[in-house]
Write a sequence for this structure.
């Protein structure tokens, strides 16, 4: 079956999920003690001007905080703006009670920017005063003590803000859990209480029969139209039309399920009955901005939503498949559910029968994630949640393994990496995104009390 290849723009990520961290900005001073409170407003506006040049969504407050009442007022104002974090500009010594009142109304991670100017202002003095209280209250915070134009402090704010964005995403994420975990993978077991308590993620259990019923109710017209549209988006189609139509039905059913249940992500257990019938659904959901993973891997689904938000592109999901000691690289791949927009060009994409079942529809192309890549794995057991991270460089790969392979080069010996993966209890599914997010992951895991291992 020959097809006409469409422009690359027609299979790009349909829903731009890139999100700028949304931060409330507050200025504090303690008036009446000749500490330099007259600099509060100028430094506040200087901070706003600097932040306006950064990739942040800034929400300034309408008043300066000078006592506990205005601190509460500022917090209540920002709480209505759905901010990810707070940036607090401190120009004098201020009581820690101001910060407590602020967070009582708007309890999000708080970045304390203590502006150092002259010894009489005593602004740095209140930094540890405040952080000791925040530590006791188990809040998420960071303290810097520099002037507004300090590049290192701004770099720290970038990491902090992205971690706060991730924390907000997790706390608001609803994940459909269709069919439970894979029956041949003991390590895929999850604890929904732990996910709710530590991450804030809402898991929505859904029987697999619900997906079956929705697929059966997809009209012939809709299935044919979707299948024909899919064929026009790729380079080669080598599957039976009946398998293509069945895959289209499951895709439309999964999309309807996500919309009806207000889901931001969907985990589908494809084993043993569905298998390659849902590869297209998993792929296109990711293209549509709804993170999706197969084999009932709920943890991978959550991580894919996180990486998608950070990178603005669908995340990669695959097994740790093969080592290449000759160039210190590892091949990761899955059998055929990768987002179409992770291919270099539509003509590279082939739809063909599954290599495992010899029927259905699997997707094949070489994943293109060149440059820095972060791969992460989340597991549950023994001491609770644990996250492992790998950082490397995405390089060219071939299709020696059918599916959607991604080859990543590392600086550490790959045989050592495989041993460390085993020793830290990481699993076989790895989720990748373009960019280096290890600093954000380290901070996020600290906030959420997740055991973190940086393997590379």
């Amino acid at each position: 079956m020959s097809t006409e290849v469409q422009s690359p723009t027609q299979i790009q990520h349909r829903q731009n999920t890139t999100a700028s961290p949304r931060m409330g900005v507050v200025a504090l001073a303690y008036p009446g003690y000749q500490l330099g409170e007259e600099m509060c407003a100028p430094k506040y506006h200087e901070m706003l001007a600097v932040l306006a040049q950064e990739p942040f969504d800034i929400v300034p407050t309408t008043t300066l905080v000078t006592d506990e009442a205005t601190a509460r007022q500022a917090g209540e104002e920002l709480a209505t703006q759905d901010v990810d974090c707070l940036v607090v500009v401190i120009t004098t010594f201020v009581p820690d009670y101001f910060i407590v009142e602020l967070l009582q109304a708007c309890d999000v991670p708080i970045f304390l920017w203590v502006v150092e100017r002259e010894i009489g202002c005593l602004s740095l003095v209140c930094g540890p005063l405040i952080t000791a209280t925040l530590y006791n209250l188990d809040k998420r915070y960071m303290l810097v003590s520099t002037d507004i134009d300090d590049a290192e402090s701004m770099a720290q704010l970038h990491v902090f803000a992205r971690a706060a964005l991730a924390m907000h995403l997790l706390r608001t994420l609803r994940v459909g859990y269709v069919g439970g975990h894979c029956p041949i993978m003991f390590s895929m077991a999850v604890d929904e209480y732990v996910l709710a308590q530590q991450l804030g993620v809402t898991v929505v259990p859904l029987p697999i029969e619900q997906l079956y019923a929705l697929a059966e109710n997809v009209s012939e017209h809709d299935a044919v139209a979707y299948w024909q549209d899919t064929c026009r988006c790729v380079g080669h189609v080598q599957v039976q039309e009946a398998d293509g139509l069945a895959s289209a039905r499951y895709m439309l059913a999964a999309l309807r399920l996500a919309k009806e249940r207000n889901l931001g992500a969907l985990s589908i257990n494809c084993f043993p009955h569905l298998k390659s019938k849902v590869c297209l659904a998993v792929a296109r959901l990711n293209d549509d901005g709804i993170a999706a993973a197969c084999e009932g891997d709920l943890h991978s689904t959550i991580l894919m939503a996180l990486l998608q938000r950070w990178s603005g592109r669908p995340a990669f999901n695959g097994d740790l498949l093969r080592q290449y000691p000759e160039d210190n690289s590892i091949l990761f791949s899955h059998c055929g559910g990768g987002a179409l927009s992770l291919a270099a060009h539509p003509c590279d994409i082939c739809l063909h029968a599954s290599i495992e079942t010899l029927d259905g529809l699997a997707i094949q192309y070489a994943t293109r994630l060149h440059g820095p890549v972060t791969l992460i794995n989340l597991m549950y057991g023994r001491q609770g949640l644990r996250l492992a991270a790998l950082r490397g460089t995405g390089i060219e790969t071939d299709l020696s393994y059918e599916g959607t392979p991604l080859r990543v080069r590392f600086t550490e010996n790959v045989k050592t990496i495989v041993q460390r993966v085993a020793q830290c209890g990481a699993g076989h599914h790895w989720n990748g995104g373009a960019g280096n997010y290890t600093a954000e992951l380290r901070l996020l895991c600290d906030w959420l009390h997740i055991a973190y291992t940086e393997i590379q």
